[in-house]
Amino acid sequence: MTVTLEHSPEVVNQVTETMTATAASRQFASVLERAKAGQTIVVTKNGQPMAQITPPPEPKPNGAALIAFLESWEGDSEGFSPDFMEWLDSLAEPNERDEERMAWLDNLHSTPAS
């Protein structure tokens, strides 16, 4: 088993381990735990790289952060562009594909302003 250091900017201080397919197979649960912890494991067969097991990607932002921001918003619309306000108003239009958004909007309209 060989351990080497990666020097790419994305993988600072990350250890890459090289192991045979047989060793990876025998220690698969451990290999997965190490990948989850941030380590990259290169699996070889007959000395040739066959696969690379890497940490999971960082979660990508989704609409949940925007919804959380809008739910916590206590200001007014001053400073927002008319296009943004038009888009925000369009969220109140019925859309069968997004029941969660509609429930959130219903809740928003029924919450008394402070």
What is the approximate shape? rod-shaped
Q: How many helical elements?
A: 5
In whole angstroms, how far apart are the ends? 63 Å
Strand content: 15-25%
Sequence stretches where pLDDT stays below 50 over 5 or more residues: 1-13
Side-by-side strand order of the widest sheet: 1-2-3-4
User: Which value, in Å, is the CA radius of gyration?
Assistant: 24 Å
- Give the integer mean of the pLDDT values: 75
Helix content: 40-55%
Structure in words:
With 114 residues, the protein is of the alpha+beta class. Helix content is 40%, strand content 19%. It has helices spanning 21-26, 28-36, 63-72, 82-90, 99-110; strands spanning 2-5, 15-20, 40-45, 48-53. The radius of gyration is 24 Å and the shape is rod-shaped.
